[in-house]
C-alpha cells in the first residue's frame, strides 16, 4: 500500500514545472490526481502517461483567473474521484521588473494569477472541504517573499499576500477541518523565466537557475511531505532552497 492511496488531489499549474512534478510524484504514491492548466495538450498527455503507468489521473482545462474554471475543476474532481482531499494552488507567473518601470499590465497579471487565482481556488474548494469535514489547501509561494530583492517587489507582494491569506484562513479554521500549507521554494529549474518580459532580467534569472536551482521533483517531495501527514498535523510553512542559494 502506498502512502497516498485513495487521496484525491487537484493541482493547478500542472502542465509543467513544479505542478507537473507534483502530479507525477503524488500519483506514483497512490493519489488520484486532477491536472489543471490552460495548455490542455500538456495536461492531457501527462494524465495519460500517469494512467499508462497504472495511476489515476484526469485533466481539466483551467484558467485560474476565471472563478468558474475553478468550480469546474472541483466539480470534475468530485465527479471523477468522489471527493477532493487536497487542492494544490500552484499556478503562477513572474513577469518581474523594477517598480519604476511601471509595467502595470504585468502587475495586474501577477495579481490576477498569483493572488486572485488562489482566492478562486479557495472559493471553489472550501464548501466541499467543509461538507466533507476535511480538506487541505497547499499553495506555492516563494522565498522571494522572505528575502525581498530588486525586480521582485510586485511578484513577492502577490506571494506574501497569499501567505497572509493562508494564515488568516488558518486562524479562522480552528474546528480541525482545514489544513493549510504555504511552500516557499527558492530557485527551481522550470520555465518560469519565460514569463519575464525584460530580456536582461530573464537572462539573469536563467543564469541563476543554471548555476544553482532545485529540480522540480524536490519541491514535489516537500508538497508530498505536507500532504502525507495525519489529519491532525499541519505543516504550515515550508521553505526549500538549493543549499548554495544565498
Ligand atoms: P512553470 O512556468 O513551469 O509553471 C507555471 C504553471 O502555471 C504552468 O503549469 C502554467 O500552465 C500555469 N499557469 C500560468 N498562468 C495560468 C493561468 N492563468 N491559469 C492556469 N494556469 C496557469 O513554473 P514553475 O513550476 O516554476 O511555477 C509553479 C509555481 O511555483 C508558481 O506559482 C511560481 O510562482 C512558483 N515558484 C517558482 C519558483 C522557481 O524558481 N521556478 C520559485 C518559487 C516559487 P499553463 O501555461 O498551461 O496555463
TrEMBL record:
Q: Which InterPro entries match?
A: NAD(P)-bd_dom_sf, Sc_DH/Rdtase_CS, SDR_fam
Q: Which UniProt keywords apply?
A: Oxidoreductase
Task: Respond yes or no to whether keyword Oxidoreductase is given for this record.
Answer: yes
Q: Which domain of life is it from?
A: Bacteria
Any Pfam family the entry gives: adh_short
**GO MF entries:** oxidoreductase activity, acting on the CH-OH group of donors, NAD or NADP as acceptor
* Similarity-based family: Belongs to the short-chain dehydrogenases/reductases (SDR) family.
PANTHER family named among the record's database cross-references: DEHYDROGENASE/REDUCTASE SDR FAMILY MEMBER 11, DEHYDROGENASE_REDUCTASE SDR FAMILY MEMBER 11
Q: What is this protein called?
A: NADP-dependent 3-hydroxy acid dehydrogenase YdfG
Identify the species of origin.
Kribbella italica
Amino acid at each position: 500500500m502506498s502512502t497516498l492511496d485513495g487521496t484525491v488531489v487537484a493541482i493547478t499549474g500542472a502542465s509543467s514545472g513544479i505542478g507537473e512534478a507534483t502530479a507525477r510524484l503524488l500519483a506514483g504514491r497512490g493519489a488520484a490526481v486532477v491536472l489543471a492548466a490552460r495548455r490542455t495538450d500538456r495536461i492531457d498527455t501527462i494524465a495519460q502517461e500517469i494512467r499508462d503507468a497504472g495511476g489515476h489521473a484526469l485533466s481539466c482545462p483551467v484558467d485560474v483567473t476565471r472563478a468558474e474554471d475553478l468550480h469546474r475543476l472541483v466539480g470534475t474532481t468530485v465527479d471523477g474521484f468522489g471527493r477532493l482531499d487536497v487542492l494544490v494552488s500552484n499556478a503562477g507567473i513572474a513577469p518581474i521588473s523594477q517598480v519604476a518601470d511601471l509595467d502595470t499590465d504585468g502587475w495586474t497579471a501577477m495579481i490576477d494569477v498569483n493572488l486572485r487565482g488562489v482566492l478562486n481556488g479557495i472559493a471553489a474548494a472550501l464548501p466541499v472541504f467543509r461538507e466533507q469535514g476535511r480538506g487541505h489547501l497547499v499553495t506555492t509561494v516563494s522565498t522571494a517573499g522572505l528575502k525581498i530583492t530588486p525586480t521582485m517587489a510586485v511578484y513577492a507582494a502577490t506571494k506574501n499576500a497569499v501567505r497572509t491569506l493562508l494564515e488568516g484562513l488558518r486562524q479562522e479554521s480552528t474546528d480541525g477541518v482545514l489544513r493549510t500549507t504555504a511552500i516557499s521554494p527558492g530557485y527551481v529549474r522550470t520555465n518560469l523565466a519565460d514569463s519575464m518580459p525584460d530580456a536582461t532580467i530573464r537572462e539573469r534569472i536563467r543564469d541563476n537557475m543554471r548555476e544553482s536551482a532545485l529540480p522540480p521533483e524536490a519541491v514535489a517531495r516537500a508538497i508530498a511531505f505536507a500532504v502525507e501527514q495525519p489529519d491532525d498535523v499541519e505543516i504550515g510553512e515550508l521553505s526549500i532552497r538549493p543549499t548554495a542559494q544565498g
